[in-house]
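Hi R.,

As promised on Friday, here is the backbone we talked about, encoded as structure tokens. Could you run it through your design pipeline when you get a chance and send me back a sequence?
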């Protein structure tokens, strides 16, 4: 298959492109810097600039683009960038795909489990659950709607609502590891909130499943089937590192360190991947223990 990938230099994109290429697929990376060879296509989604011709005849497009959510404090300007780098970028890509003479069969576009809100307690959330409020929830809703032009053109659109993707080099877990290695890690803000995680391998496999299996469309929760509380996640991580998990990180410290983003990570989202499972996808790492162990060993 020939597959175009936007946001290909990130945590998920790098792993996805490596997996597709290793299996002989033809990957076309959309890059914001100048292209270096024919496997790359320069685009500038901020100003709506791309040559659509190399996209003619692709089988699938994957959109993973967006400025880092946890990288900086959320100033007004950065919140605007978080939105525009996803919503504007997705709308531009969806419109470009819709305008092709030979469009792809499927467009897989990233979203997040924050679609369901900030704090839903112990409620089990599947793809039929109602959305809720909060900055990231509003962002996710508008992000998903931004792909509308592709569905209107008859392209099957899969909205992938990612949970916390586990990796020891990048993302949320990589930032926790140094503290844990020094024996200074512990539950966040009480630890009773659910964390819905997924291993990087399952993320890549699930994206490939949606690309390769005909008939997939709509929202898919990209999480492991057995979400756990932050306290349990912390306990397993400390155990696998052979370190104690003694020091709880209090709410005030989180709020000072992370600003408004602290509310989002201290909230509880117990999300299950019902549609993936019902479609026949099998997770390699369904439990916190298997997913964390995989992240630590890869
Ligand atoms: N990882 C998670 O735990 C998680 C959880 C929920 C949702 N998500 C979402 O899933 C997507 C992929 O996740 P990821 O972890 O791979 O993200 P990532 O590592 O932050 O990579 C995102 C990619 O987006 C592109 N990008 C960065 N700034 C941009 C901007 N201003 N405008 C347009 N594109 C920009 C970059 O690719 P190029 O430089 O190649 O363009 C970057 O590598 C992201 O949209 C993320 O928000 C991830």
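Update: got your reply. Pasting your designed sequence below so it's all in one thread:
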């Amino acid at each position: 298959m020939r597959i175009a990938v936007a946001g290909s230099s990130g945590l998920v994109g790098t792993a996805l492109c490596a997996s597709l290429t290793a299996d002989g697929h033809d990957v076309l990376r959309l890059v914001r810097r100048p292209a270096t060879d024919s496997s790359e296509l320069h685009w500038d989604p901020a100003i709506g600039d791309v040559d659509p011709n190399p996209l003619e005849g692709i089988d699938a497009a994957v959109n993973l683009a967006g400025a880092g959510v946890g990288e900086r404090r959320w100033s007004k300007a950065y919140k605007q960038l978080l939105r525009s780098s996803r919503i504007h970028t997705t709308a531009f890509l969806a419109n470009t795909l819709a305008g092709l003479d030979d469009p792809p069969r499927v467009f897989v576009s990233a979203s997040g489990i924050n679609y369901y809100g900030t704090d839903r307690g112990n409620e089990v959330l599947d793809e039929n659950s109602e959305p809720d409020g909060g900055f990231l929830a509003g962002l996710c809703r508008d992000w998903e709607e931004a792909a509308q032009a592709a569905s209107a053109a008859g392209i099957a659109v899969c909205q992938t609502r990612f949970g916390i993707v586990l990796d020891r080099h990048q993302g949320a877990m990589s930032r926790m590891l140094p503290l844990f290695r020094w024996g200074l890690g512990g539950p966040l803000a009480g630890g009773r909130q659910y964390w819905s995680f997924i291993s990087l391998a399952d993320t890549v496999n699930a994206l490939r499943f949606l690309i390769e299996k005909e008939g997939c469309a709509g929202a898919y929760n990209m999480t492991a089937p057995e979400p756990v509380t932050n306290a349990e996640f912390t306990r397993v991580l400390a155990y696998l590192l052979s370190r104690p998990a003694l020091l709880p990180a209090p709410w005030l410290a989180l709020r000072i360190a992370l600003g408004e983003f602290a509310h989002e990570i201290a909230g509880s989202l117990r999300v299950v991947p019902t549609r993936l499972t019902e479609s026949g996808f099998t997770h390699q790492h369904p439990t916190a223990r298997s997913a964390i162990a995989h992240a630590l060993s890869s």
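One thing I noticed while checking it: Residues 2-297 form a domain with the Rossmann fold fold (CATH 3.40.50.720).

Thanks again,
M.
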